[in-house]
Write a structure and sequence with these properties.
The protein is of the alpha/beta class. The chain is built from 11 helices and 9 strands. Strand 5, helix 6 and strand 6 form a beta-alpha-beta unit. The mean pLDDT is 94.
């Protein structure tokens, strides 16, 4: 088997990846990180390859980092947003995707508000499809970049570590992908959220559920705060926002209850003072901007792996 062989056409969710495949992507991202630190941040590896970024929901980090990642590998990247596309004239997701495929991209990166949208396309298209976030379902490259960030802090042997994921779990594709990934990596996961912001079936997740934030943070090695996804909320799920902040905002007092070397992550965008305090987000323990930097290296690894998966060396 050549070094570039990869058995998956698409990246839809971390549950499709084996432990060795996850480690391979993290190791490759570490090598690509070095390119991002050079004065000239570009290599010719994917010259002539085409990547379409099809974002049907807003994004700053994911979309920009896939674009930067593709360009740093010398691929041609093209962006399509819903506003300005023929979706606003009623074109279906399937027809939009088939139209994009007719332009012969190697990879389509898609973000969509419907859970399963990326899998729907992957079944119908010959090119690779990368899920950049589908509804409440999955955000695999976010979970992988979170693992990359914590591996840089913890080292390669992460067994025995504990991570707390706290906040709006119900609406979070990041939480779901992270729980799956950390279990594969042998890290214990705790979850905490207001009762109305827990998804049905959370008791079956491979994670320990807490109903008290102070108890949940005790002794953990990392805390991941989640954005309160107000745009996906139904009325009545929350008390007013100031009460939410008072009861559930992660601050320095929570970090002081965690392990001495504990760090805080957040996938972004953050609502300062709502789910995470400004002091915690800006503290020396924050790894939020490291996550953004990791996103470029990790997405370079994903694009390279999928584009080269059938190449014979
Ligand atoms: N974490 C994340 O997906 O951020 P964006 O919505 O800005 O891409």
């Amino acid at each position: 088997m050549s070094e570039t062989h990869w058995p998956h056409k698409d990246l839809l969710d971390v549950e499709d990846l084996s432990l060795s495949e996850i480690i391979r992507l993290l190791d490759m991202a570490a090598r690509f990180k070095e390119i991002n630190e050079r004065p000239v941040k570009k290599v010719p590896t994917l010259r002539g390859r085409g990547i379409i970024l099809f974002f049907a929901e807003p994004s700053t980090r994911t979309k920009t980092s896939f674009d930067v990642a593709g360009k740093r590998l010398s691929a041609d990247t093209f962006s399509l947003a819903v506003s300005g596309s023929s979706i606003t004239k009623g074109e279906s997701l399937k027809d939009t995707a088939l139209t994009l495929q007719a332009m012969s991209p190697d990879i389509i990166v898609i973000r969509h508000s419907s859970s399963g949208a990326a899998a729907f396309l992957a079944e119908r298209l010959d090119c690779s499809v990368v899920n950049a976030g589908d509804g409440r379902h999955a955000h695999p490259t976010q979970a992988l970049l979170d693992a990359f960030t914590l591996r840089e802090h913890w080292g390669a042997d992460m067994s025995g570590k504990t991570l707390l994921i706290a906040g709006d779990i119900a609406h979070s594709r990041v939480a779901r992908s992270n729980v799956l990934l950390w279990n594969k990596l042998g890290v214990s996961v705790r979850v905490f959220g207001p009762r109305t912001l827990l998804p049905p079936g959370i008791s079956t997740w491979p994670a320990k559920l807490y109903d008290n934030l102070e108890e949940a943070v005790k002794g953990v090695d990392a805390i991941m705060g989640l954005r309160l996804q107000l745009e996906r909320q139904q009325a009545g799920l929350l008390p007013d926002l100031s009460e939410y902040a008072q009861r559930f905002c992660i601050g320095l007092k929570h970090l002081s209850l965690a392990a001495p070397e504990a760090v805080i992550l957040h996938p972004g965008p953050i609502n300062r003072g709502l789910e995470i305090s400004a002091e915690a987000a800006d503290s020396a323990k924050s790894r939020i901007l490291d996550q953004v930097a990791a996103g470029v290296a990790l997405r370079m690894a994903v694009l390279f792996t999928l584009a080269m998966r059938n190449e014979v060396e």
